[in-house]
Amino acid sequence: MSILRTVVRGVGSYLPAERLTNADLAKIVDTSDEWIVERTGIHARHRAAPGEYTSDLAVHAGLAALADAGLTGDDIDLVVVATATPDHTFPATAVEVQKRLGIHHGFAYDIQAVCSGFVYALATVDAQLKAGMAKRALVIGAETFSRILDWTDRTTCVLFGDGAGALVVEAVESEGTSADRGILASSLRADGRHKEKLWVDGGVSTTQTAGHLRMEGKEVFKHAVTNLADVIEVLFGQTGLAGDDIDWFVPHQANRRIIDATGRKLGIAPEKVVMTVQEHGNTSAASIPLAIDVAVKDGRIKKGDMVMLEAMGGGFTWGAVLLRW
Length: 325
What we know:
Elements: E1 3-14, E2 18-21, H1 22-25, H2 33-40, E3 44-47, H3 54-69, E4 78-82, H4 93-100, E5 107-111, H5 117-130, E6 136-144, H6 154-157, E7 162-174, E8 182-190, E9 198-200, E10 213-215, H7 217-239, E11 248-251, H8 256-266, H9 277-280, H10 287-297, E12 306-313, E13 317-324
Helix pairs in contact: 3-4, 7-8
């Protein structure tokens, strides 16, 4: 039976020029390289320059993905930006990106699911492409988390970085088997009971300020490993696949210990895990597409490979996408 699959056509990413090392952070907050690396695996992260906005990062990543796909803005009829740090309350950052890429047709919107945003965006776009609402989409994860960090809180400011990553995806007629290229399955979850474990203490309706990120690290770690393993097991059940069938595991780059623990629980060999947290820090919705771009560019992820994506973010939200490259 012929069905539509959402297939990746191009990838791209962008990191701001400033590279902020652990030694740099030790000059502004009570921390050390040893303390940060032992707890997170992070050595450095990037920070957007003054006047450099989430839309700027998104445009750079989008242009790189379009170039990789051999396409232009004229070929795209849907732009989705996953972000928790938009340029403005409204309009959506996606419409600014759409404008700057010269796209004057189709539609555009933002998705806000914090660190799970890119997974949520891919799953949503997959459904819309299969429904015939668009033919090709530009899906971007972009964040400037440096703008919502409390730079006196060493437990959070050392974790996060800025960046953007993008995929160009297209609806393609396929045979409807697990041998197809494209997205094979996805699963999304949320549980608002855990909001206070990872949240921002500001907002338009509540404080009329952007606020700062607050996190209960031990609680997030505990829930992350369990929740992510559960949602991935759902996809294994839907497709009949198992950890041994995964060629590359591309998790949200939050913390090396979370990534290692999740991989072990799922039976995914360490050499199959794409890890960029050491150089990027936690870039929230941008972390997965940034990691994908690194692994594609260095030759690890190749056509035909089975790739598992997963993320958990504030809310809590979490989810996973299984696709054949």
